[in-house]
Amino acid sequence: MRVDIISIFPEYFAPLDLSLIGKARSTGLLSVDVHDLRTWTSDVHRTVDDTPYGGGPGMVMRPEPWGQALDAVGPGTLVVPSPVGKPFTQADAYELAAVDHLIFACGRYEGIDQRVIDDAAARMPVREISLGDYVLFGGEVAVIVIMEAVTRLLPGVLGNASSLDEESHSAGLLEAPVYTKPASWRDREVPDVLRSGDHGRIARWRRTQSLLRTAARRPDMMASYPPELLDKSDRAA
Ligand code: ADE
Prior knowledge:
S-adenosyl-L-methionine binds at residues 107, 131-136. With 237 residues, this protein is an alpha/beta fold.
């Protein structure tokens, strides 16, 4: 997968050199190029923003540098992190992981002139994505979040791809609690069933914990869980 990131703060993306994203880059599964939006300015002050038409607080990103930047790195699937975007889900991460070329446009201030998004949409798929119902300073941190969610789904990135099958948000339920050694710690014991070696009982216990957790923490997820996927023991739980 090829990724281009356009931002006025290229330094924000240092974490993409680390850990499994860094490894995916060095093994060639992923290429990431970070571009400074100011490369595509032509005035001495390298201006990227101006006051909003219609008045109001803050500044808006001017269209010209964005237009040139997207002409230079595109076409591809354009992702614009924004608090007015569609809420990001695991399903979106899977869809983006299937794309060959992603372009991230990081807005700052009050956002990017709308014509940039409309103009790009005439030439390439555009997705405005929100991380949640809160406002960040800009799209940079959102890009790192989306890149983590997407990169771990690329074939060959996770050592054990079966860990994707049962994780939270893949099966429509939250995952059960997890434990490791020691079996006893500060007088707290690992649940006996997990040490029983009985794989059937362990699977049943995990399933029950998963349902209880989801019902308690995410009633919205529980409500949209397909009822035909609930068996008799699930209902008893
Ligand atoms: N930029 C500013 N706020 C954001 C949010 N909530 N999600 C994605 N990008 C943003």
